[in-house]
Amino acid sequence: MDVALKNKAETKIWLSPPHMSGNEQRFVQEAFESNWIAPSGPHIAQFEKALTNYTQSKYAVALYSGTSAIHLALKCLNIENGDVVFCSTFTFIATANPIHYENAIPYFIESEKETWNMCPIALESAILKTKANHQKPVAIILVHLYGNPAKMDALKAVANKYNIPIIEDAAEALGSTYHGFPCGSLTEIGILSFNGNKIITTSGGGALLTDNKAFAIKSIYLSTQAKEATLHYEHKNIGYNYRMSNVAAAIGCGQMMVVDERVSQRRNNFEYYKKQFANTSIQFQPEAENTRSNRWLTAVVFENKTKKENVQEALLRQNIECRPLWKPLHSQPIFNNCLYEGNHFSDVLFEKGLCLPSGSNLSEVELNYISKTVIQSL
Ligand SMILES: *Cc1c(COP(=O)(O)O)cnc(C)c1O
Predict the structure, then answer these.
(1) How far, in Å, from the CA of 94 to the mean position of ligand 1?
(2) Domains of the chain by range and CATH?
(3) Is the full-model pTM beyond 0.85?
(4) What is the whole-number distance in angstroms between the Cα of residue 193 and the centre of ligand 1?
């Protein structure tokens, strides 16, 4: 191993670390100087404005996390005990947890092969079974996995046919586009996450995106303890403490200035790996026609489980962080005996796939080092 690579092994390469632009501190400084160190303040409005501009959504409500945004999206749709929510199975558990907060029933839907996102055919069979069972479907939560846009036209056609609203979990997909339109605002409600590992971060945070004014008002109301518009504290509903803090929003203002740059840096990582692995049997998450993934994480699939494990071990030995692809939710112990529609495609992806380091601040030396480590352990 050459010296540059050897030195590299002494510092860890992270999967998807935060990447500040240098603009953030100016906004945070403003927040400190004006003493808006609270879950209200001018940077929240400024951050929300940047989000609506960028996503072409009418309203953005800045929240404490992507998970709280999903929870409030379900509340906007008046979710009730025992309602059924169709949900991508191949995703992070945060997509489904809020279904349980409301004692509703998740119905996990398998992915199709072209994008690894919710399969419209499986969705329709699940809807038909739910109807036959006289259960009430209240929403579809679909994910743009690793930033890769789902087959929205086909999914929307099914949703419209049965009149079920879609919540777009775009936690990983800020900056991705479907037929030129930004992910997160392709349906009645979308959500974003600004967790530390996402494409931009506020250290922790999320947002709800919608064109529906009533949804925006309801989300703000519920995220601030459901206070009525009186001087004293009057409450007619149960609320939450879900609003984003002004300091976090100030970080977000700085991060929003560089979203497009972050997307091209992540896409470059993907292209780099693709080139390096051209002569191997490694396969990449496919991007559908007319869509543009932000390539939040480069997700690859190996020929078999053994190869994946060999690569995983080699990377970890070299102090390079990598992660298996999401373990599908229908295979999680917590969702034992859940409703599930599909052919177990995502179980195979989980078994054979890995996410490679994908930070927007990866250097070419690091990318080279990671690629060499992968190829040598195949
Ligand atoms: C990160 C993530 C979330 C949750 O966002 P938090 O801000 O961490 O609460 C939800 N769904 C998906 C697909 C995610 O990757």
Answers:
(1) 5
(2) 3-17+259-377 (3.90.1150.10), 24-256 (3.40.640.10)
(3) yes
(4) 6
